[in-house]
Design goal:
Length: 151
C-alpha cells in the first residue's frame, strides 16, 4: 500500500458522515448526462477506494438516483449524492470527492464519458475516454495513479 491515507467527509447538512482509510485506487471525473443531472453540474468527481477502507460513521444514507445495479447513496435529509456502490464490483466504493472535508490532491486522474461532456468542461485528467474504459484498462491506470502519488 502506498503511504497512509485518511480522509473524512459528509453531506451538506452534516447528518451523514463517512471516512476513507484506504488509499484511493484512482480519482475520476464522469461527464455522462446522468452525472450532470445528479450533480447539477458539468461532471461528477469521485475517489474510487476499497470497500473495506470506507465506513459511514454517522447517519444512514438512502438509495437515490436510478435505483439500479449501480446503487447511488444520498443523505435522507439534504439529498447530497454521497457515494456509489456498483453491484458488479462490490469490493470498491466510489465516493464524491467534493464531500470530503479536505479534497486537496485528489484532482481527477481519469475522465470518462467525454462523448457527452459539455464543450467548455475541462479537467486536468491524464487519461480520457469517450465512454467508460474497458475493464483491462483499469489495472495499468491504477498502477500509474499509484506511482504518481508515491512520487
Amino acid at each position: 500500500m502506498v503511504g497512509e491515507f485518511m480522509r473524512e467527509g459528509g453531506c451538506r447538512c452534516g447528518q451523514v458522515r463517512f471516512k476513507i482509510s484506504a488509499p484511493p485506487l484512482i480519482t475520476m471525473a464522469c461527464h455522462c448526462t446522468g452525472c450532470q443531472k445528479m450533480t447539477a453540474s458539468a461532471f461528477s468527481l469521485s475517489v474510487l477506494t476499497r470497500s473495506a477502507g470506507f465506513e459511514v460513521t454517522q447517519g444512514e444514507p438512502v438509495l437515490g438516483g436510478l435505483h439500479g445495479a449501480t446503487r447511488h447513496f444520498f443523505c435522507p435529509h439534504c439529498k447530497s449524492w454521497m457515494f456509489t456502490r456498483p453491484d458488479d464490483a462490490p469490493h470498491v466504493v466510489n465516493v464524491r470527492t467534493t464531500l470530503l472535508d479536505d479534497p486537496s490532491g485528489l484532482e481527477p486522474f481519469m475522465e470518462t464519458m467525454t462523448a457527452e461532456k459539455l464543450p467548455w468542461a475541462v479537467t486536468p485528467a491524464v487519461e480520457s475516454f469517450e465512454g467508460f474504459p474497458p475493464p483491462e484498462a483499469y489495472a495499468p491506470m491504477m498502477a500509474a495513479f499509484a506511482a504518481g502519488r508515491a512520487g
